[in-house]
């Protein structure tokens, strides 16, 4: 056998064992022969192998020790690929005949080896290519999507411009959030970033590659360099990774599609990079063994120490991603402890031979980058599909690995034994404490101290001789009680105080009084009848002497004190043991291998579908950043904990990346060797990549320039259109035209365009004329200028009174007049004066001479106002805000009217834009808009109603209704979800989003037609996308034109309806 054939067989064995590991983890089947049979029947296809096992309904036998402890081969130094189970690399037949082992492997790998010899490509790699090809196809399809989908690019390039010093995001090109999460985590390892950026392809790359592996890896490495260079120096907010994905897709040909797994992709990505660096290392070596920087960075070694049937063994193994089980553990250390110890290990610590078998793992060499793969998926044999484990798992920001190192083997064993002993003692103490806290022999139990206290209270109660049932009417029907109706208040009757208490319930006088009172039988199934005033409120002993009471109280008090002291002592002992266990590894000798958390890859959703994003620590700003596809935002440890620990919603960490805290070169910036200055931006790039990024930035700058030029042309055309409209024929008038700076406001004296001559114009004229008439009554013979000043004061006083009035929500005087709105929001005095003056300068005032003369004076005053006296830009801004306030009101009232009519689909867009407009207004002041909480409530409720409506359509199973339901979800709900997630402090909105997602995820466990399952699988990733980036959206609905009086009336009517019908928010 040649060296090349030997290497090929070793690689095939490694791949075969990786498939066995994955199949065992997914299905829960531990029978190696059955697993091999399934792989052979499926030609190495994992999905078909799973189907084979579930269709056969294979029973899972107990795992044989000889097959479980697969590292029992002495002196076997092996290589485990990234992501493979460390303890399952060799099939141990426990016999001396090694030919049997070779024959078994050869038989199971026959098909896989033949394909590998022909192409150099494994079945696992082909499976990944299917996902990449599906991603590219999805990306191409996205070019045809309508503008309402949330992942389309904004047409305005300025929206896609990178903010200063803000990290660059990665565009999701179709189910590739896993790609973005992994790439960003690796890119932010600056040492890895440097290795990729400064990678120089081998000289023979220009020649034809020797095999398809080189044909794939080298171009991919070059494309990864380009992608990293854009992440370093691009002026874009996010970049498109399609070319890197395209190269991976072109390497393998397949048409199948699936959701990619983060750990599997990371495994293969590092494999590809390792191969690319190995090619370069072999070319550069000079008689020495080539060093691969990927291996040095991501791979470590551990020692497997074990006993198999009384025989001890030690094997050294290499690992990359270290797999950890989540189910049944509360924190990362518990997971690691379980992964490091397997089986019975007592014989490891004793000189006596034992039939027990087990093994321990001890790290001999930790990699600078330590990656843990958290296994959060398990196969449900009953349902025949994988399920996600949502259990909470805590992990620290600083992880000390000393207790798992081989150099600390002896001391760790001592500490583990001490912890085991302490936990046994802890269990005993907790059981004792439980007996104190849950006392009793029946189903209901109570704290013993409370039981004694209740007994003391019973004994101390006032004794009575009456029977507790003597006052109950035995003639009452079953299930009824007798209510004693008190005598009329006018009689003034009181209970006879001379009757002794001990006779009050049974004497002739008491019976006569009871007979005089009317008895009414009342059925009260959930309440008791009123207790007569002469009976005690609590049960009490009938006969107890003072001596008995004294002795009993003394005993109960003493016993209660003893119980409380015992309880406190037990709780203190338990706390001390917990603290001792926590501090067991806190001495300095066990804190010499610190690893700081660098990145957390999070998955939200179910096993079949979901969304990935990453939290990555920025050591220079000392803060966490959230990388969610194109969105890169500042975050916090609290947000990371909420999304990553699990147990809360459907989000949890799937992969943890720690870095050696004693190796700062991993995250240190690069410095110029000559100047000593820190390199940043394009200065970090080699010449070829710098040129590449500069060319892309020039393209982007040109795109922005073309956009600006297009917008300038549009603006010029709009100005020309406005100018043409302004010179259109006007009604005959003898009055002079105002100067240019007053022309624009005069076209809109009612502060909102109205078509009806009997609408706002008439209403405003009537208000103005009333003010003039009132002023004339006060100054009958005064000049028009005095009348104008007086009339303006009268009108302002009237509007000020409206502004100061405390009104209910259904009567909002801000809608009545713009001046009221200005007063509420403390507009500048000059703005208010000019606005009021415009009201009196209206050409359409009454035709009597007095009004005309006042209008002339007002117009003359407008002409005298100098440009520096009133800031016209500020004036226009205030009037625009008022127009937006009116538009917001119209959006809101139409949306609420439709909501109350249960037209939820039609209502949604009005409420969405009401909230958006209102939010913009409230950003300028608290009285600029409406009640934000009210709009948010109905926006949220409307979305939930629309979601339920779409789900109901989907559940019908009818093709047209299913498509209609999914269309509603894609065009409305999915597009609106980022609006609810953008403000993550609004807990009710986040819970509502989770409710909507859970509604659709619940279908994953139900049986349905294949076409419905396919539609659901295509739709769920869109629904579960956690991006808060809002690229484009529906245009706002066209608003009808309402007069001021009509708007106030309809707004008041709908707000009154809400007051009558609205129920408190149900927690959403």
Automatic annotation (TrEMBL):
UniProt region (Disordered), positions on chain: 465-540, 725-783
Substrates-to-products reaction catalysed: Thiol-dependent hydrolysis of ester, thioester, amide, peptide and isopeptide bonds formed by the C-terminal Gly of ubiquitin (a 76-residue protein attached to proteins as an intracellular targeting signal)
Family annotation (PROSITE patterns): UIM, USP_1, USP_2, USP_3
SMART domains found in the cross-reference section: UIM (SM00726)
Protein EC: 3.4.19.12
First-listed, main subcellular location of the protein, grouped into a coarse class: cytoplasm
Residue ranges with Low complexity bias: 474-484, 509-518
Subcellular localization(s) per the UniProt record: Cytoplasm; Nucleus
Keywords per UniProt: Coiled coil, Cytoplasm, Hydrolase, Isopeptide bond, Nucleus, Phosphoprotein, Protease, Repeat, Thiol protease, Ubl conjugation, Ubl conjugation pathway
Top-rank taxon, per record: Eukaryota
Gene Ontology CC: cytosol; nucleus
GO-annotated biological processes: protein deubiquitination; proteolysis
Family under the similarity heading: Belongs to the peptidase C19 family.
Stated role: The muscle-specific isoform (USP25m) may have a role in the regulation of muscular differentiation and function.
UniProt name for this protein: Ubiquitin carboxyl-terminal hydrolase 25
């Amino acid at each position: 056998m040649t060296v090349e054939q030997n290497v090929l067989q070793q690689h095939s064995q490694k791949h075969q064992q990786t498939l066995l590991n994955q199949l065992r983890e997914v299905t829960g089947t531990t029978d190696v022969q059955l697993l091999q049979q399934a792989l052979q029947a499926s030609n190495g296809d994992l999905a078909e192998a799973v189907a084979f096992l579930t269709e056969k309904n294979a029973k899972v036998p107990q795992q044989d020790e000889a097959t479980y402890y697969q590292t029992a081969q002495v002196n076997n130094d092996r290589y485990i690929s990234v992501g493979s189970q460390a303890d399952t690399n060799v099939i141990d037949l426990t016999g001396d005949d090694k030919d049997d082992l070779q024959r078994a492997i050869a038989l199971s790998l026959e098909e896989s080896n033949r394909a590998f010899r022909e192409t150099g490509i494994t079945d696992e790699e082909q499976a990944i290519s299917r996902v990449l090809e599906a991603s590219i196809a999805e990306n191409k399809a996205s070019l045809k999507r309508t503008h309402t989908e949330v992942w389309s690019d904004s047409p305005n390039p300025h929206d896609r411009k990178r903010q200063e010093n803000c990290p660059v995001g990665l565009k999701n090109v179709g189910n590739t959030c896993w790609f973005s999460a992994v790439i960003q985590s690796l890119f932010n390892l600056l040492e890895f970033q440097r290795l990729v950026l400064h990678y120089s392809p081998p000289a023979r790359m220009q020649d034809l590659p020797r095999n398809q592996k080189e044909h794939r890896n080298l171009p991919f490495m070059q494309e990864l360099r380009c992608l990293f260079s854009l992440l370093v120096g691009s002026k874009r907010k996010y970049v498109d990774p399609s070319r890197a994905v395209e190269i991976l897709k072109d390497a393998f040909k397949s048409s199948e599609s699936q959701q990619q797994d983060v750990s599997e992709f990371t495994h293969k990505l590092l494999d590809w990079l390792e191969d690319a660096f190995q090619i370069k290392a072999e070319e550069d070596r000079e008689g020495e063994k080539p060093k691969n920087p990927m291996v040095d960075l991501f791979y470590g070694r551990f020692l497997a120490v074990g006993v198999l049937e009384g025989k001890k063994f030690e094997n050294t193994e290499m690992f990359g991603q270290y797999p950890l089980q989540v189910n049944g553990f509360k924190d990362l250390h518990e997971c690691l402890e379980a992964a490091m110890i397997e089986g019975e290990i007592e014989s490891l610590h004793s000189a006596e031979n034992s039939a027990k078998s087990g093994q321990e793992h001890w790290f001999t060499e930790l990699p600078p980058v330590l990656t843990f793969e958290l296994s959060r998926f398990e196969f449900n044999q009953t349902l025949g599909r994988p399920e996600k484990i949502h259990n909470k798992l805590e992990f620290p920001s600083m992880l000390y690995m000393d207790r798992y190192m081989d150099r600390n083997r002896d001391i760790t064993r001592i500490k583990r034994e001490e912890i085991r002993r302490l936990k046994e003692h802890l269990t005993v103490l907790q059981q004792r404490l439980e007996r104190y806290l849950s006392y009793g022999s029946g189903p209901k139990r109570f704290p013993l101290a409370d039981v004694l206290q209740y007994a003391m209270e019973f004994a101390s109660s006032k004794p009575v001789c009456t029977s507790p049932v003597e006052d109950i009417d035995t003639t009452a029907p079953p299930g009824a009680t007798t209510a004693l109706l008190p005598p009329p208040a006018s009689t003034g009757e009181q209970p006879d105080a001379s009757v002794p208490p001990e006779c009050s319930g049974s004497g002739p006088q008491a019976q006569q009084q009871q007979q005089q009172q009317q008895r009414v039988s009342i059925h009260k199934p959930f309440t008791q009848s009123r207790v007569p005033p002469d009976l005690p409120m609590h049960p009490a002993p009938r006969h107890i002497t003072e001596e008995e009471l004294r002795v009993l109280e003394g005993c109960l008090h003493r016993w209660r004190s003893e119980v409380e002291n015992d309880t406190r002592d037990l709780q203190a002992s338990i706390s001390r043991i917990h603290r001792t266990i926590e501090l067991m590894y806190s001495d300095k000798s066990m804190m010499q291998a610190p690893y700081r958390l660098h990145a957390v890859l999070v998955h939200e959703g179910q096993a079949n579908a979901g969304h990935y994003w990453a939290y990555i620590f920025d050591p220079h700003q000392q803060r966490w950043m959230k990388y969610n596809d194109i969105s890169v935002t500042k975050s916090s440890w609290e947000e990371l904990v909420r999304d990553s620990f699990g147990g809360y919603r459907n989000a949890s960490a799937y992969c943890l990346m720690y870095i050696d805290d004693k190796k700062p070169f991993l995250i240190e910036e690069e410095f110029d060797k000559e100047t000593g200055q820190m390199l940043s931006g394009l200065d970090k790039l080699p010449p070829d990549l710098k040129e590449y990024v500069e060319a892309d930035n020039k393209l982007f700058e040109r795109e922005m320039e073309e956009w600006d030029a297009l917008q300038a042309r549009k603006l010029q055309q709009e100005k020309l259109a406005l100018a043409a409209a302004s010179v259109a024929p006007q009604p005959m008038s003898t009055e002079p035209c105002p100067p240019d700076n007053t022309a624009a406001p005069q076209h809109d004296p009612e502060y909102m365009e109205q078509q009806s001559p009997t609408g706002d114009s008439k209403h405003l004229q009537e208000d103005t004329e009333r003010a003039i008439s009132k002023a004339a009554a006060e100054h009958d013979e005064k000049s028009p200028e005095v009348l104008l000043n007086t009339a303006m004061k009268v009108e302002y006083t009237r509007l000020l009174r409206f502004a100061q009035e405390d009104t209910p929500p259904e009567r909002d005087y801000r809608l009545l007049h713009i001046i009221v709105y200005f007063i509420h929001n403390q507009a500048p005095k000059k703005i208010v004066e000019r606005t009021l003056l415009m009201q009196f300068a209206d050409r359409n005032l009454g035709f009597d001479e007095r009004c005309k003369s006042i209008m002339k004076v007002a117009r003359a005053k407008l002409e005298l106002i100098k440009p520096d006296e009133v800031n016209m830009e500020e004036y226009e801004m205030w009037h625009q805000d008022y127009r937006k306030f009116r538009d917001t009101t119209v959006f809101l009232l139409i949306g609420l009217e439709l909501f109350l009519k249960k037209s939820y689909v039609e209502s949604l867009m009005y409420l969405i834009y009401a909230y958006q407009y209102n939010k913009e207004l409230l950003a300028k002041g608290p009285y600029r808009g409406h009640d934000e909480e009210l709009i948010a409530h109905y926006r949220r409720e409307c979305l939930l109603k629309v979601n339920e409506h779409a789900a109901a359509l989907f559940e019908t199973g009818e093709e047209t209704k299913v498509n209609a339901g999914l269309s509603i979800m894609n065009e409305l709900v999915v597009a609106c979800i980022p609006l609810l997630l953008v403000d993550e402090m609004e807990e009710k909105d986040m819970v509502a989003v989770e409710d909507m997602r859970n509604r659709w995820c619940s279908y994953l466990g139900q049986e349905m037609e294949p076409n419905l399952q396919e539609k659901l699988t295509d739709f769920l990733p869109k629904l579960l996308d956690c991006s808060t980036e809002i690229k484009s959206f529906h245009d706002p609905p066209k608003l009808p034109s309402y007069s001021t009086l009509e708007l106030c009336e309809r707004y008041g009517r709908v707000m009154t309806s809400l007051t009558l019908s609205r129920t408190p928010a149900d927690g959403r």
